[in-house]
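Please annotate this fold before class:
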Amino acid sequence: MSEVTATFDLQQIVGELAEVRQRWRTQQQRSTEPGGRELPSREELTRIVEGLRGALFPMRLGPPDLRQESEDFYVGHTLDTVLHALLQQVRLELHYGQRNGDKQAPEALDAKAIRIVREFGHALPQIRSLLDSDVMAAFEGDPAARSVDEVLLAYPGIEAMIHHRVAHRLYALGVPLLARLVAELAHGKTGIDIHPGACIGPGFFIDHGTGVVIGETAVIGQRVRVYQAVTLGARSFPTDAAGHPIKGQLRHPTVEDDVVIYAGATVLGRVTIGRGASIGGNVWVTHDVAPGANVTQARSRKEDLVEGGWL
């Protein structure tokens, strides 16, 4: 067979793409001056998070040939690389924020970036401790789990929580774009969508995980367990005079300690699920639930017949 040669009018395509980009930048009041990248990089954050995972759990999530006697050397070398890379991404976000009204001198922004990354580095031991509590909660809460190592290596809920504990700290330190990108990396890998603003206490266990959604202003206490397809979402969005959603409102649930929320349950609005309550599968909750209460769907007809002696 003869080889078919194709040609493309690349000059026209490139020119038309340039026109579209120019139109977008004009609409968004973006600079058209030549320069480097203005926004953080998803690819670089992927490498940063991978390094952090290894530094937090070197003998489980670090390099396969790592030996325990070299553990501290590996952690120190990895953190030196990762924190310097993170510093550059923080600088990009802070300088990008200048466009949205955060007018500060470049030197002040650079000093702020250094402070943020230093504080983040010093928070890593606390992040590790929280993750240890999440791993133990999964091991103790799942009868199928054979070891804590299996939980750490294989459970998507733990993968999501590693990202969330990192993302939440970045969010609290004032770099919400980086935090959201870190969260979305886990969302893409696990199907678990946790906004980095959500406050989650120790010992949090997401069983199975796929389809779980936790909103920005959700507050979750200690030793809480949720199953797949659970949503902790907003019931409504207050809007301004122009009809745009008002941002920053408290619109997601508060879940107190020792609550269990089973598969497919949806909890919406700024409601409180009291300590020790249990929310059954596929239940729709838009009101407060008292401590210790059990909220379930009505029993199926088949269950009624079995209990009544008909089957």
About this structure: The two ends are 70 Å apart (CA to CA). The CA atoms of residues 143 and 207 lie 11 Å apart.
